UniProtKB/TrEMBL annotation:
Belongs to the phosphohexose mutase family. The active site is at S67 (phosphoserine intermediate). Substrate binds at E388, A389, N390, R519, P520, S521, G522, T523, R528. The gene is LOC107487565. Its EC number is 5.4.2.3. This is Phosphoacetylglucosamine mutase.
Length: 555
Protein backbone atom coordinates (compact mmCIF):
# COMPACT_ATOMS: atom_id res chain seq x y z
CA UNK A 1 0.00 0.00 0.00
CA UNK A 2 1.37 3.41 -0.83
CA UNK A 3 1.30 6.45 1.46
CA UNK A 4 -1.80 7.94 -0.11
CA UNK A 5 -3.74 4.70 0.35
CA UNK A 6 -2.60 4.29 3.95
CA UNK A 7 -3.54 7.79 4.94
CA UNK A 8 -6.93 7.45 3.27
CA UNK A 9 -7.73 4.39 5.42
CA UNK A 10 -6.24 5.98 8.54
CA UNK A 11 -8.33 9.09 8.13
CA UNK A 12 -11.67 7.42 7.51
CA UNK A 13 -11.23 4.52 9.93
CA UNK A 14 -10.61 6.93 12.79
CA UNK A 15 -14.25 7.99 12.32
CA UNK A 16 -15.43 4.39 12.73
CA UNK A 17 -13.87 3.07 15.90
CA UNK A 18 -15.06 -0.40 16.96
CA UNK A 19 -17.15 -0.68 20.12
CA UNK A 20 -15.13 -1.72 23.17
CA UNK A 21 -15.44 -5.19 24.62
CA UNK A 22 -17.47 -6.67 21.76
CA UNK A 23 -16.09 -9.51 19.68
CA UNK A 24 -17.79 -10.03 16.35
CA UNK A 25 -17.60 -13.09 14.17
CA UNK A 26 -18.55 -13.54 10.49
CA UNK A 27 -20.73 -16.55 11.43
CA UNK A 28 -22.90 -18.68 9.17
CA UNK A 29 -24.36 -15.74 7.31
CA UNK A 30 -22.22 -12.68 7.99
CA UNK A 31 -21.89 -10.36 11.00
CA UNK A 32 -25.00 -9.84 13.08
CA UNK A 33 -25.51 -7.79 16.24
CA UNK A 34 -27.51 -4.99 17.76
CA UNK A 35 -27.49 -2.30 15.06
CA UNK A 36 -25.93 0.27 17.40
CA UNK A 37 -22.73 -1.81 17.49
CA UNK A 38 -22.25 -2.21 13.77
CA UNK A 39 -21.05 1.11 12.25
CA UNK A 40 -17.38 0.20 12.38
CA UNK A 41 -17.99 -3.41 11.26
CA UNK A 42 -19.98 -2.36 8.22
CA UNK A 43 -17.39 0.29 7.33
CA UNK A 44 -14.70 -2.40 7.49
CA UNK A 45 -16.79 -4.83 5.43
CA UNK A 46 -16.85 -2.05 2.81
CA UNK A 47 -13.04 -2.23 2.77
CA UNK A 48 -13.15 -6.02 2.67
CA UNK A 49 -15.55 -6.01 -0.29
CA UNK A 50 -13.31 -3.57 -2.20
CA UNK A 51 -10.28 -5.82 -1.59
CA UNK A 52 -12.27 -8.87 -2.66
CA UNK A 53 -13.28 -7.07 -5.84
CA UNK A 54 -9.67 -6.07 -6.56
CA UNK A 55 -8.51 -9.62 -5.94
CA UNK A 56 -11.17 -11.30 -8.09
CA UNK A 57 -11.50 -8.50 -10.64
CA UNK A 58 -15.25 -8.97 -10.39
CA UNK A 59 -18.23 -7.16 -8.98
CA UNK A 60 -18.85 -7.90 -5.28
CA UNK A 61 -22.03 -7.36 -3.24
CA UNK A 62 -22.60 -6.10 0.29
CA UNK A 63 -26.01 -6.74 1.85
CA UNK A 64 -27.08 -5.04 5.05
CA UNK A 65 -29.64 -7.21 6.80
CA UNK A 66 -30.23 -9.32 9.89
CA UNK A 67 -32.79 -11.50 8.13
CA UNK A 68 -35.33 -12.91 10.60
CA UNK A 69 -33.69 -11.35 13.68
CA UNK A 70 -35.46 -8.63 15.62
CA UNK A 71 -35.79 -5.18 14.09
CA UNK A 72 -33.24 -3.55 16.40
CA UNK A 73 -30.54 -5.94 15.13
CA UNK A 74 -28.76 -5.57 11.86
CA UNK A 75 -26.03 -7.38 9.98
CA UNK A 76 -23.83 -7.40 6.94
CA UNK A 77 -22.68 -10.06 4.52
CA UNK A 78 -20.76 -10.27 1.27
CA UNK A 79 -21.84 -11.75 -2.04
CA UNK A 80 -18.92 -13.27 -3.94
CA UNK A 81 -18.42 -13.04 -7.75
CA UNK A 82 -20.67 -16.06 -8.41
CA UNK A 83 -23.43 -14.41 -6.34
CA UNK A 84 -22.91 -16.92 -3.51
CA UNK A 85 -21.53 -16.46 -0.02
CA UNK A 86 -18.06 -15.04 0.66
CA UNK A 87 -15.35 -17.66 0.10
CA UNK A 88 -14.77 -19.42 3.42
CA UNK A 89 -11.07 -18.88 2.90
CA UNK A 90 -11.59 -15.13 3.52
CA UNK A 91 -13.75 -15.49 6.64
CA UNK A 92 -10.84 -15.41 9.13
CA UNK A 93 -9.69 -12.14 7.53
CA UNK A 94 -13.22 -10.75 7.86
CA UNK A 95 -13.15 -11.63 11.58
CA UNK A 96 -9.72 -10.08 12.11
CA UNK A 97 -10.69 -6.93 10.21
CA UNK A 98 -13.88 -6.42 12.22
CA UNK A 99 -12.07 -6.83 15.52
CA UNK A 100 -8.88 -4.81 14.90
CA UNK A 101 -8.86 -2.46 17.90
CA UNK A 102 -7.28 0.63 16.31
CA UNK A 103 -6.78 2.25 12.88
CA UNK A 104 -3.04 1.43 13.05
CA UNK A 105 -3.72 -2.24 13.68
CA UNK A 106 -6.28 -2.20 10.91
CA UNK A 107 -3.68 -0.84 8.46
CA UNK A 108 -1.18 -3.46 9.56
CA UNK A 109 -3.68 -6.26 9.05
CA UNK A 110 -4.64 -5.04 5.60
CA UNK A 111 -0.98 -4.65 4.65
CA UNK A 112 -0.19 -8.22 5.64
CA UNK A 113 -3.27 -9.62 3.96
CA UNK A 114 -2.87 -7.85 0.62
CA UNK A 115 0.76 -9.01 0.48
CA UNK A 116 -0.26 -12.59 1.17
CA UNK A 117 -3.08 -12.49 -1.40
CA UNK A 118 -1.04 -10.55 -3.98
CA UNK A 119 -3.64 -7.78 -4.20
CA UNK A 120 -2.36 -4.75 -6.06
CA UNK A 121 -3.34 -1.13 -5.63
CA UNK A 122 -1.92 0.19 -8.86
CA UNK A 123 -4.75 2.60 -9.54
CA UNK A 124 -5.29 0.78 -12.86
CA UNK A 125 -7.33 -2.08 -11.47
CA UNK A 126 -10.78 -1.03 -10.35
CA UNK A 127 -13.18 -2.43 -7.82
CA UNK A 128 -16.97 -2.28 -8.01
CA UNK A 129 -19.30 -2.99 -5.14
CA UNK A 130 -23.11 -3.26 -5.21
CA UNK A 131 -24.74 -2.22 -1.92
CA UNK A 132 -28.22 -3.19 -0.77
CA UNK A 133 -30.18 -3.14 2.49
CA UNK A 134 -33.42 -4.44 3.89
CA UNK A 135 -36.13 -2.24 5.43
CA UNK A 136 -34.58 -1.91 8.91
CA UNK A 137 -34.50 1.71 10.08
CA UNK A 138 -30.79 1.38 10.92
CA UNK A 139 -30.01 0.29 7.36
CA UNK A 140 -29.60 3.71 5.81
CA UNK A 141 -26.84 4.90 8.15
CA UNK A 142 -25.08 1.54 7.96
CA UNK A 143 -25.15 1.67 4.19
CA UNK A 144 -23.41 5.06 4.39
CA UNK A 145 -20.72 3.44 6.54
CA UNK A 146 -20.24 0.72 3.92
CA UNK A 147 -19.88 3.41 1.24
CA UNK A 148 -17.15 5.10 3.27
CA UNK A 149 -15.33 1.79 3.63
CA UNK A 150 -15.41 1.24 -0.12
CA UNK A 151 -14.34 4.85 -0.77
CA UNK A 152 -11.28 4.39 1.41
CA UNK A 153 -9.77 2.03 -1.17
CA UNK A 154 -8.32 3.82 -4.19
CA UNK A 155 -10.06 2.84 -7.42
CA UNK A 156 -13.12 1.30 -5.68
CA UNK A 157 -16.61 2.47 -6.55
CA UNK A 158 -19.82 1.68 -4.65
CA UNK A 159 -23.24 1.58 -6.24
CA UNK A 160 -26.11 2.14 -3.79
CA UNK A 161 -29.07 0.01 -4.90
CA UNK A 162 -31.22 0.96 -1.92
CA UNK A 163 -33.82 -1.41 -0.47
CA UNK A 164 -33.64 -4.93 -1.90
CA UNK A 165 -34.28 -8.48 -0.80
CA UNK A 166 -31.07 -10.38 -0.02
CA UNK A 167 -31.55 -12.72 -3.00
CA UNK A 168 -32.10 -9.77 -5.36
CA UNK A 169 -28.69 -8.37 -4.40
CA UNK A 170 -27.05 -11.80 -4.82
CA UNK A 171 -28.77 -12.22 -8.19
CA UNK A 172 -27.54 -8.83 -9.40
CA UNK A 173 -23.94 -9.67 -8.49
CA UNK A 174 -24.28 -13.03 -10.26
CA UNK A 175 -25.85 -11.44 -13.35
CA UNK A 176 -23.34 -8.58 -13.55
CA UNK A 177 -20.42 -10.98 -13.46
CA UNK A 178 -21.98 -13.06 -16.21
CA UNK A 179 -22.26 -9.96 -18.38
CA UNK A 180 -26.06 -10.05 -18.21
CA UNK A 181 -28.41 -7.14 -17.66
CA UNK A 182 -28.60 -6.89 -13.90
CA UNK A 183 -30.94 -4.17 -12.64
CA UNK A 184 -33.89 -4.79 -10.34
CA UNK A 185 -36.12 -4.35 -13.37
CA UNK A 186 -34.16 -7.08 -15.19
CA UNK A 187 -34.66 -9.38 -12.20
CA UNK A 188 -38.40 -8.73 -12.24
CA UNK A 189 -38.60 -9.28 -15.98
CA UNK A 190 -36.61 -12.51 -15.90
CA UNK A 191 -38.73 -13.98 -13.11
CA UNK A 192 -42.06 -12.94 -14.53
CA UNK A 193 -41.31 -13.97 -18.12
CA UNK A 194 -40.03 -17.41 -17.13
CA UNK A 195 -43.05 -17.84 -14.85
CA UNK A 196 -45.40 -17.03 -17.75
CA UNK A 197 -43.46 -19.41 -19.98
CA UNK A 198 -43.96 -22.24 -17.46
CA UNK A 199 -47.66 -21.40 -17.17
CA UNK A 200 -48.02 -21.64 -20.95
CA UNK A 201 -46.44 -25.09 -20.83
CA UNK A 202 -48.96 -26.56 -18.37
CA UNK A 203 -50.50 -29.66 -19.95
CA UNK A 204 -54.05 -28.81 -20.98
CA UNK A 205 -55.53 -32.04 -19.62
CA UNK A 206 -54.43 -31.25 -16.07
CA UNK A 207 -57.38 -29.94 -14.10
CA UNK A 208 -57.21 -26.57 -12.41
CA UNK A 209 -57.94 -26.51 -8.74
CA UNK A 210 -61.18 -25.14 -7.42
CA UNK A 211 -62.07 -21.50 -6.76
CA UNK A 212 -61.16 -21.22 -3.06
CA UNK A 213 -57.69 -22.39 -3.84
CA UNK A 214 -56.99 -19.94 -6.60
CA UNK A 215 -55.76 -17.20 -4.32
CA UNK A 216 -52.42 -17.26 -2.56
CA UNK A 217 -52.06 -15.17 0.60
CA UNK A 218 -48.48 -14.20 1.50
CA UNK A 219 -47.17 -13.05 4.87
CA UNK A 220 -44.32 -10.61 4.12
CA UNK A 221 -42.86 -10.60 7.70
CA UNK A 222 -43.38 -6.79 7.71
CA UNK A 223 -40.25 -6.67 5.61
CA UNK A 224 -38.96 -6.12 2.11
CA UNK A 225 -40.33 -9.28 0.49
CA UNK A 226 -43.98 -8.22 0.39
CA UNK A 227 -43.01 -4.90 -1.17
CA UNK A 228 -41.14 -6.58 -4.01
CA UNK A 229 -43.74 -9.31 -4.47
CA UNK A 230 -46.35 -6.64 -5.19
CA UNK A 231 -44.15 -5.34 -8.01
CA UNK A 232 -43.75 -8.83 -9.45
CA UNK A 233 -47.39 -9.76 -9.09
CA UNK A 234 -48.49 -7.16 -11.65
CA UNK A 235 -46.61 -9.06 -14.34
CA UNK A 236 -47.93 -12.53 -13.57
CA UNK A 237 -50.90 -13.56 -15.60
CA UNK A 238 -53.10 -16.12 -13.97
CA UNK A 239 -51.88 -15.88 -10.41
CA UNK A 240 -53.74 -13.99 -7.74
CA UNK A 241 -51.59 -12.97 -4.76
CA UNK A 242 -52.72 -11.08 -1.70
CA UNK A 243 -49.83 -9.71 0.36
CA UNK A 244 -50.25 -9.13 4.09
CA UNK A 245 -47.68 -7.82 6.57
CA UNK A 246 -45.73 -5.85 4.02
CA UNK A 247 -43.20 -3.30 5.30
CA UNK A 248 -45.41 -0.34 4.46
CA UNK A 249 -48.31 -1.75 6.52
CA UNK A 250 -46.72 -0.44 9.71
CA UNK A 251 -46.17 -3.70 11.63
CA UNK A 252 -42.89 -4.52 13.37
CA UNK A 253 -40.42 -6.52 11.28
CA UNK A 254 -40.40 -10.25 12.18
CA UNK A 255 -42.55 -9.73 15.29
CA UNK A 256 -45.12 -12.51 15.39
CA UNK A 257 -44.77 -12.80 11.61
CA UNK A 258 -42.45 -14.32 9.02
CA UNK A 259 -41.16 -17.71 7.93
CA UNK A 260 -38.89 -18.25 10.93
CA UNK A 261 -41.74 -17.63 13.38
CA UNK A 262 -44.23 -19.74 11.45
CA UNK A 263 -41.82 -22.66 10.98
CA UNK A 264 -40.46 -22.73 14.53
CA UNK A 265 -43.66 -21.97 16.45
CA UNK A 266 -45.99 -23.75 14.03
CA UNK A 267 -48.63 -21.04 14.44
CA UNK A 268 -50.31 -18.59 12.06
CA UNK A 269 -48.58 -15.23 11.70
CA UNK A 270 -50.27 -12.04 12.87
CA UNK A 271 -53.00 -11.01 10.43
CA UNK A 272 -54.08 -14.58 9.64
CA UNK A 273 -57.02 -16.26 11.34
CA UNK A 274 -59.75 -18.83 11.12
CA UNK A 275 -61.40 -16.98 8.23
CA UNK A 276 -58.37 -18.03 6.16
CA UNK A 277 -58.93 -21.73 6.86
CA UNK A 278 -58.31 -23.84 3.77
CA UNK A 279 -56.62 -21.05 1.80
CA UNK A 280 -53.10 -21.57 0.46
CA UNK A 281 -50.79 -19.31 2.48
CA UNK A 282 -47.04 -18.65 2.36
CA UNK A 283 -44.66 -16.84 4.64
CA UNK A 284 -41.38 -15.09 3.79
CA UNK A 285 -38.69 -14.06 6.25
CA UNK A 286 -37.51 -10.48 6.83
CA UNK A 287 -35.09 -10.37 3.88
CA UNK A 288 -37.06 -12.82 1.70
CA UNK A 289 -34.57 -15.65 1.37
CA UNK A 290 -36.76 -18.16 3.24
CA UNK A 291 -40.12 -19.51 2.24
CA UNK A 292 -42.62 -21.82 3.90
CA UNK A 293 -46.25 -22.57 3.08
CA UNK A 294 -49.07 -23.30 5.48
CA UNK A 295 -52.82 -23.56 5.86
CA UNK A 296 -54.73 -22.28 8.85
CA UNK A 297 -56.41 -25.00 10.81
CA UNK A 298 -60.16 -24.33 11.14
CA UNK A 299 -60.55 -26.18 14.41
CA UNK A 300 -58.06 -24.61 16.74
CA UNK A 301 -57.17 -20.95 16.86
CA UNK A 302 -53.73 -20.13 15.52
CA UNK A 303 -52.78 -23.73 14.70
CA UNK A 304 -51.53 -24.41 11.20
CA UNK A 305 -50.55 -27.24 8.92
CA UNK A 306 -46.99 -26.38 7.99
CA UNK A 307 -45.55 -27.12 4.55
CA UNK A 308 -41.87 -26.55 5.16
CA UNK A 309 -38.67 -26.38 3.12
CA UNK A 310 -38.40 -30.17 3.03
CA UNK A 311 -41.76 -30.40 1.30
CA UNK A 312 -40.90 -27.59 -1.12
CA UNK A 313 -37.78 -29.60 -1.95
CA UNK A 314 -39.90 -32.72 -2.53
CA UNK A 315 -42.28 -30.84 -4.84
CA UNK A 316 -39.38 -29.41 -6.85
CA UNK A 317 -37.69 -32.81 -7.03
CA UNK A 318 -40.85 -34.47 -8.36
CA UNK A 319 -41.29 -31.84 -11.05
CA UNK A 320 -37.66 -31.91 -12.20
CA UNK A 321 -37.62 -35.69 -12.17
CA UNK A 322 -40.79 -35.79 -14.28
CA UNK A 323 -39.27 -33.48 -16.91
CA UNK A 324 -36.01 -35.43 -16.98
CA UNK A 325 -37.79 -38.72 -17.47
CA UNK A 326 -39.88 -37.29 -20.34
CA UNK A 327 -36.65 -36.05 -21.92
CA UNK A 328 -34.98 -39.41 -21.45
CA UNK A 329 -37.77 -41.11 -23.36
CA UNK A 330 -37.27 -38.99 -26.47
CA UNK A 331 -35.98 -40.77 -29.50
CA UNK A 332 -33.31 -40.07 -32.00
CA UNK A 333 -31.78 -36.85 -30.71
CA UNK A 334 -28.05 -36.36 -30.90
CA UNK A 335 -25.93 -36.11 -27.83
CA UNK A 336 -27.81 -38.36 -25.46
CA UNK A 337 -27.11 -37.36 -21.94
CA UNK A 338 -28.37 -38.67 -18.61
CA UNK A 339 -28.54 -35.66 -16.33
CA UNK A 340 -27.20 -36.14 -12.81
CA UNK A 341 -29.79 -34.94 -10.35
CA UNK A 342 -28.63 -34.49 -6.77
CA UNK A 343 -30.63 -33.65 -3.64
CA UNK A 344 -28.95 -31.84 -0.77
CA UNK A 345 -30.37 -31.60 2.75
CA UNK A 346 -29.06 -31.29 6.28
CA UNK A 347 -29.44 -34.01 8.90
CA UNK A 348 -31.98 -31.68 10.50
CA UNK A 349 -34.45 -32.24 7.66
CA UNK A 350 -37.42 -34.28 8.76
CA UNK A 351 -36.54 -37.97 8.37
CA UNK A 352 -39.83 -38.63 6.55
CA UNK A 353 -38.75 -36.28 3.74
CA UNK A 354 -35.42 -38.07 3.34
CA UNK A 355 -37.18 -41.44 3.24
CA UNK A 356 -39.65 -40.16 0.68
CA UNK A 357 -36.92 -38.78 -1.60
CA UNK A 358 -34.93 -42.00 -1.29
CA UNK A 359 -38.02 -43.99 -2.27
CA UNK A 360 -38.18 -41.93 -5.45
CA UNK A 361 -34.73 -43.30 -6.21
CA UNK A 362 -33.02 -39.94 -5.78
CA UNK A 363 -29.47 -39.40 -4.61
CA UNK A 364 -29.48 -37.68 -1.20
CA UNK A 365 -26.48 -35.80 0.18
CA UNK A 366 -26.18 -34.36 3.67
CA UNK A 367 -24.13 -31.28 4.58
CA UNK A 368 -23.77 -29.15 7.70
CA UNK A 369 -26.32 -26.37 8.31
CA UNK A 370 -25.85 -23.11 6.41
CA UNK A 371 -26.51 -22.13 2.82
CA UNK A 372 -22.83 -22.02 1.90
CA UNK A 373 -22.43 -25.75 2.56
CA UNK A 374 -25.60 -26.88 0.82
CA UNK A 375 -25.02 -24.63 -2.17
CA UNK A 376 -21.47 -25.86 -2.67
CA UNK A 377 -22.62 -29.48 -2.70
CA UNK A 378 -25.58 -28.84 -5.02
CA UNK A 379 -23.25 -27.15 -7.52
CA UNK A 380 -21.56 -30.53 -8.12
CA UNK A 381 -24.57 -31.85 -10.10
CA UNK A 382 -26.14 -31.10 -13.49
CA UNK A 383 -29.17 -30.21 -11.43
CA UNK A 384 -28.72 -29.86 -7.68
CA UNK A 385 -31.72 -29.14 -5.45
CA UNK A 386 -31.04 -28.03 -1.91
CA UNK A 387 -33.28 -26.98 0.95
CA UNK A 388 -33.17 -26.58 4.69
CA UNK A 389 -36.36 -27.31 6.59
CA UNK A 390 -36.52 -23.60 7.49
CA UNK A 391 -37.20 -22.72 3.86
CA UNK A 392 -33.76 -21.73 2.56
CA UNK A 393 -33.04 -23.34 -0.78
CA UNK A 394 -32.97 -23.31 -4.54
CA UNK A 395 -32.27 -25.43 -7.63
CA UNK A 396 -28.88 -25.07 -9.30
CA UNK A 397 -28.38 -25.87 -12.98
CA UNK A 398 -24.78 -26.33 -14.14
CA UNK A 399 -23.68 -24.17 -17.04
CA UNK A 400 -22.83 -27.18 -19.15
CA UNK A 401 -26.26 -28.71 -18.56
CA UNK A 402 -28.02 -25.45 -19.50
CA UNK A 403 -25.90 -25.36 -22.68
CA UNK A 404 -26.94 -28.95 -23.45
CA UNK A 405 -30.60 -28.10 -22.76
CA UNK A 406 -30.46 -25.14 -25.12
CA UNK A 407 -28.94 -27.23 -27.89
CA UNK A 408 -31.46 -30.05 -27.33
CA UNK A 409 -34.39 -27.61 -27.30
CA UNK A 410 -33.26 -26.13 -30.60
CA UNK A 411 -32.91 -29.56 -32.11
CA UNK A 412 -36.31 -30.70 -30.86
CA UNK A 413 -38.02 -27.47 -31.94
CA UNK A 414 -36.70 -27.92 -35.45
CA UNK A 415 -37.61 -31.61 -35.67
CA UNK A 416 -40.58 -32.26 -33.44
CA UNK A 417 -42.16 -28.99 -32.46
CA UNK A 418 -44.83 -29.38 -29.81
CA UNK A 419 -43.56 -32.82 -28.71
CA UNK A 420 -43.58 -33.79 -25.05
CA UNK A 421 -39.80 -33.90 -25.06
CA UNK A 422 -39.54 -30.36 -26.41
CA UNK A 423 -41.95 -29.13 -23.75
CA UNK A 424 -40.02 -30.89 -20.98
CA UNK A 425 -36.77 -29.29 -22.16
CA UNK A 426 -38.44 -25.87 -22.36
CA UNK A 427 -39.81 -26.32 -18.83
CA UNK A 428 -36.37 -27.12 -17.47
CA UNK A 429 -34.88 -24.11 -19.24
CA UNK A 430 -37.59 -21.79 -17.93
CA UNK A 431 -37.09 -23.24 -14.43
CA UNK A 432 -33.37 -22.47 -14.62
CA UNK A 433 -34.27 -18.85 -15.36
CA UNK A 434 -37.04 -18.57 -12.81
CA UNK A 435 -35.27 -20.03 -9.81
CA UNK A 436 -32.44 -17.87 -8.44
CA UNK A 437 -29.06 -19.38 -9.37
CA UNK A 438 -27.14 -17.33 -6.83
CA UNK A 439 -28.95 -18.18 -3.60
CA UNK A 440 -32.28 -19.37 -2.16
CA UNK A 441 -34.95 -16.79 -2.99
CA UNK A 442 -38.45 -16.77 -1.51
CA UNK A 443 -39.87 -14.75 -4.41
CA UNK A 444 -38.64 -17.03 -7.16
CA UNK A 445 -39.49 -19.98 -4.89
CA UNK A 446 -43.10 -18.85 -4.52
CA UNK A 447 -43.49 -18.51 -8.27
CA UNK A 448 -42.05 -21.95 -8.93
CA UNK A 449 -44.21 -23.62 -6.26
CA UNK A 450 -47.29 -21.92 -7.68
CA UNK A 451 -46.66 -22.95 -11.25
CA UNK A 452 -45.78 -26.54 -10.26
CA UNK A 453 -49.01 -26.86 -8.23
CA UNK A 454 -50.93 -25.71 -11.29
CA UNK A 455 -48.90 -28.04 -13.49
CA UNK A 456 -49.75 -31.00 -11.24
CA UNK A 457 -53.33 -29.81 -10.73
CA UNK A 458 -52.71 -30.05 -6.98
CA UNK A 459 -54.13 -28.17 -4.01
CA UNK A 460 -51.85 -27.43 -1.07
CA UNK A 461 -53.55 -30.30 0.77
CA UNK A 462 -52.67 -32.78 -1.96
CA UNK A 463 -49.07 -31.50 -1.88
CA UNK A 464 -48.92 -31.78 1.91
CA UNK A 465 -50.02 -35.42 1.65
CA UNK A 466 -46.83 -36.43 -0.21
CA UNK A 467 -45.62 -37.79 3.10
CA UNK A 468 -46.33 -37.21 6.78
CA UNK A 469 -43.63 -35.58 8.88
CA UNK A 470 -42.29 -37.65 11.73
CA UNK A 471 -43.03 -35.98 15.06
CA UNK A 472 -40.04 -33.81 15.95
CA UNK A 473 -38.88 -31.29 18.51
CA UNK A 474 -36.19 -28.62 18.36
CA UNK A 475 -34.77 -27.18 21.56
CA UNK A 476 -31.98 -24.80 22.34
CA UNK A 477 -29.71 -25.07 25.35
CA UNK A 478 -27.88 -22.03 26.70
CA UNK A 479 -24.28 -22.97 27.45
CA UNK A 480 -21.17 -21.13 28.60
CA UNK A 481 -19.28 -21.87 25.39
CA UNK A 482 -21.08 -23.37 22.42
CA UNK A 483 -17.76 -23.84 20.56
CA UNK A 484 -17.02 -26.65 23.03
CA UNK A 485 -19.38 -28.78 20.92
CA UNK A 486 -17.58 -30.09 17.86
CA UNK A 487 -19.41 -32.28 15.37
CA UNK A 488 -18.57 -34.35 12.30
CA UNK A 489 -20.44 -36.23 9.54
CA UNK A 490 -22.66 -33.29 8.59
CA UNK A 491 -23.36 -32.51 12.25
CA UNK A 492 -24.74 -35.96 13.02
CA UNK A 493 -21.97 -37.03 15.41
CA UNK A 494 -20.48 -35.15 18.35
CA UNK A 495 -16.72 -35.64 18.68
CA UNK A 496 -16.26 -33.27 21.59
CA UNK A 497 -16.88 -33.15 24.53
CA UNK A 498 -15.91 -36.82 24.77
CA UNK A 499 -18.66 -39.15 25.94
CA UNK A 500 -21.55 -36.92 24.88
CA UNK A 501 -22.24 -38.84 21.66
CA UNK A 502 -22.31 -42.18 23.50
CA UNK A 503 -24.77 -40.71 25.99
CA UNK A 504 -26.96 -39.41 23.13
CA UNK A 505 -26.86 -42.82 21.41
CA UNK A 506 -27.85 -44.49 24.63
CA UNK A 507 -30.84 -42.18 25.04
CA UNK A 508 -31.92 -42.35 21.39
CA UNK A 509 -31.83 -46.16 21.48
CA UNK A 510 -34.72 -46.12 23.95
CA UNK A 511 -37.16 -44.69 21.37
CA UNK A 512 -38.78 -46.33 18.40
CA UNK A 513 -37.78 -44.44 15.19
CA UNK A 514 -35.63 -42.22 17.43
CA UNK A 515 -33.12 -39.82 15.83
CA UNK A 516 -31.42 -37.10 17.75
CA UNK A 517 -28.56 -34.70 16.99
CA UNK A 518 -26.97 -31.70 18.63
CA UNK A 519 -24.91 -28.90 17.09
CA UNK A 520 -23.66 -25.47 18.07
CA UNK A 521 -25.78 -22.70 16.53
CA UNK A 522 -24.05 -20.58 13.91
CA UNK A 523 -26.04 -17.49 14.80
CA UNK A 524 -26.84 -17.57 18.53
CA UNK A 525 -25.02 -18.46 21.70
CA UNK A 526 -26.79 -21.79 22.11
CA UNK A 527 -26.51 -25.48 21.32
CA UNK A 528 -29.41 -26.83 19.25
CA UNK A 529 -31.06 -30.17 19.87
CA UNK A 530 -33.15 -31.92 17.22
CA UNK A 531 -35.13 -35.04 18.06
CA UNK A 532 -37.50 -37.26 16.12
CA UNK A 533 -39.53 -40.23 17.26
CA UNK A 534 -42.71 -42.11 16.47
CA UNK A 535 -44.97 -39.87 18.60
CA UNK A 536 -44.86 -36.22 19.62
CA UNK A 537 -44.59 -37.16 23.30
CA UNK A 538 -41.63 -39.41 22.55
CA UNK A 539 -39.90 -36.74 20.41
CA UNK A 540 -40.42 -34.17 23.19
CA UNK A 541 -39.12 -36.53 25.82
CA UNK A 542 -36.04 -37.50 23.76
CA UNK A 543 -35.23 -33.83 23.05
CA UNK A 544 -35.61 -32.96 26.73
CA UNK A 545 -33.36 -35.76 27.94
CA UNK A 546 -30.67 -34.90 25.39
CA UNK A 547 -30.91 -31.19 26.29
CA UNK A 548 -30.20 -32.24 29.89
CA UNK A 549 -27.20 -34.25 28.73
CA UNK A 550 -25.84 -31.22 26.87
CA UNK A 551 -26.30 -29.17 29.99
CA UNK A 552 -24.47 -31.77 32.09
CA UNK A 553 -21.53 -32.08 29.70
CA UNK A 554 -21.17 -28.34 29.13
CA UNK A 555 -22.68 -26.75 32.18
C1 LIG B 1 -28.37 -18.78 8.92
C2 LIG B 1 -28.18 -19.50 7.61
C3 LIG B 1 -29.20 -20.61 7.46
C4 LIG B 1 -29.16 -21.53 8.64
C5 LIG B 1 -29.28 -20.76 9.92
C6 LIG B 1 -29.00 -21.67 11.07
C7 LIG B 1 -27.49 -18.53 5.50
C8 LIG B 1 -27.77 -17.50 4.46
N1 LIG B 1 -28.33 -18.56 6.52
O1 LIG B 1 -29.60 -18.12 8.94
O2 LIG B 1 -28.90 -21.32 6.29
O3 LIG B 1 -30.21 -22.46 8.58
O4 LIG B 1 -28.30 -19.73 9.94
O5 LIG B 1 -28.89 -20.93 12.23
O6 LIG B 1 -26.55 -19.29 5.43
P1 LIG B 1 -28.52 -21.64 13.58
O7 LIG B 1 -27.16 -22.26 13.38
O8 LIG B 1 -28.55 -20.57 14.60
O9 LIG B 1 -29.58 -22.66 13.80
MG1 LIG C 1 -33.24 -14.52 5.69
Amino acid sequence: MNEQQQSLILESSSRFLPPQGVKLSYGTAGFRADASLLQSTVYRVGILAALRSLKTQSVIGVMITASHNKVSDNGVKIADPNGGMLSQHWEPFADALANAPSPQELIQLINEFVKKEGIQFDGVKHAEILLGRDTRPSGEALLEAAKEGVASIVGAVAMDLGILTTPQLHWMVWARNKGMKASEQDYVEQLSSSFRCLMDLIPSQRSKFDGTNDKLVVDGANGVGGLKLKVLEKLLNGLLIEVRNSSEDGGVLNEGVGADYVQKEKVAPHGFGSSDAGIRCASLDGDADRLVYFTVNPESSGAIDLVDGDKILSLFALFIREQLSILNEREGTKNNHQARLGIVQTAYANGASTNYLKQLGLEINLTPTGVKYLHEKAAEFDIGIYFEANGHGTILFSESFVGWLEATTNELSARSKGSDAEKAALRLLATSRLINQAVGDALSGVLLVEVILQHMGWSIHRWNELYHDLPSRQLKVKVADRTAVITTNAETVVVSPPGLQEAINNETGKYSQGRCFVRPSGTEDVVRVYAEASSQEAADSLANSVAKLVDQFLG
